[in-house]
Amino acid sequence: MNATGSRSALWLCVLGSAIVTAAALAADQPQWGERFSRSMISHEKNLPDAFDLKTDRNVKWSAALGTETNSSPVVAGGRVFIGTNNAKPRDPQHQGDCGVVLCLDEGDGRLVWQLVVPKKGPNPFMDWPNTGMVSPVTVEDRRVYLVSNRNEVMCLDLDGMANGNDGPYKDEGRHMAAPDAPPAPVNPTDADILWLYDMEKLGVHSHDAAHASILVYGDCLYLCTSNGVADDHLSIPSPDAPSLVVFNKDTGKLVARDNEHMAPRTIHNTWSSPSLGEVDGRPLIFFAGGDGIVYAFEPVSSPPPGDSVHNLKRVWSFDCDPAAPKEDVFKYQDNRTESPSNITGMPVFHNNRVYVEAGGDYWHGKPQTWLKCIDATGTGDITRSGKLWSYPLNRFCMSTPSVMGDLVFIGDCGREVHCVDAHTGRPYWTHRVRGEIWASLLVADGKVYAASRSGELSILAAQREKKVIRTINLGGPVHATPIAANGTLYLATMTRLYAIQQPPNP
């Protein structure tokens, strides 16, 4: 082969390798956070750090949502899923205040199908007006799992009604209609419910909104119940209801529940979703209760026979605020000086450690909040022995940490982004933003994407030295976590979803 041919062959090899590498990096994002660990990171590359929503520069497509969007997008199987409300109906037959999950085409953002769920009932505290569908979906093997605004665990067909009404559930028309209305017509653009389980059967009393990001592990679904306070915020209507439950993913049968009686120590609600990690070769389920305690449980090894239900076996527990009140917690309602702590973000597993935020309730408690690091290798009550470090945040926090390598990133309601050493808890830097941060941060492609309720997106370098890359106005408040999938960045404001894509290098 001559020199020119050698160079051509070498170039083809390099180009082919680059294509294979790019393809390997591009992947779906089938659940909220990284699979199992729940860390808010992505391994996508070539993500944009500059775009213009007014001129559509680097905007692949955008889609109108409702007027409130509190759910984060998920991408799987050529589809993009996001929860919102029904203030801007996609189908004129669906009117009124409902929770909605939109299933959009990943390529152009057009509607493929939607799940429409009317309000739970006349009590606004069990399904707050206009809040919409808060829970992000989880997708596996062409099945879509979620918890509806009526606190129902649901399994949907990825293809919707376009390929017919698969079963065993067949009553979608009745489910889409208001209680006093006749069944609604079922169209090809409606969701196909395969099975559902109403958690009211467990005595669960949801409050304000049902929120759960379902963890799929083996044959089981693990999720929180959103069991919370009464309308007056001064009692727990269902003190014996579970906080963590497990279902068979194929049948919807309840197979396990916790037996920790967290509810009486919960000042507001149970909204944190579980994670999973392998500790010294042993898988563990990590769950942050509404009582401010992180629990580790053994996963379900096999479904129980018949209708029996297992109690999950606790391996360890860690109290994130041991000095806080534990009894008669409602005496401290709206006490901004002294109150119990709770946890709303998910626990993140990384290198035999669990990272979690914990502190006073945003609506009814003290502002003190911490980022905690827990040694996950212990047993029993590890409140003292398992504490590796504790880092004070500015004030209230509802975010899930993003752990990338030896750095942890988190945003808080004190309008700050924090970069902390994952090993020691030593702060490297903080960055002040406009507006409270309710959404979790996305760390991907060497960048930190931090979106706030003011509509500001701050893009920073994911490194020890502080570097602000760019600040972009998104035009509306953000409650949804930015996500990345298949080379595209997805950003949702309250009213619009944007697919942002870097143009390919020449």
Distance between the termini: 28 Å
Rg to the nearest angstrom? 23 Å
Can you identify the CATH class?
A: Mainly Beta
Task: Report the portion of residues in β strands.
Answer: 35-45%
Helical content band: under 10%
Write down the CATH topology.
Answer: Methylamine Dehydrogenase, Chain H
Structural class: mainly beta
Total domain units: 1
Task: Pick out the low-confidence regions.
Answer: 1-24
What's the tally of helices?
A: 2
Return the CATH architecture.
7 Propeller
Output the CATH homologous superfamily: YVTN repeat-like/Quinoprotein amine dehydrogenase
How are strands sequenced across the largest beta sheet? 1-30-31-32-33
Major sheet size, sense and barrel closure = 5 strands, mixed
- What characteristic shape results from the CA principal axes? globular
Give the mean pLDDT: 93
How is this structure best summarized?
By secondary structure, the protein is mainly beta. It has helices at 3-25, 172-176, and strands at 41-42, 59-64, 74-76, 79-85, 98-105, 111-118, 138-140, 143-147, 152-157, 193-198, 215-217, 220-224, 244-248, 254-257, 275-279, 282-288, 293-297, 310-311, 314-319, 341-342, 348-350, 353-360, 369-375, 380-381, 387-392, 402-404, 407-411, 416-421, 427-432, 442-444, 447-451, 456-461, 468-473, 483-485, 488-492, 496-501. The radius of gyration is 23 Å and the shape is globular.
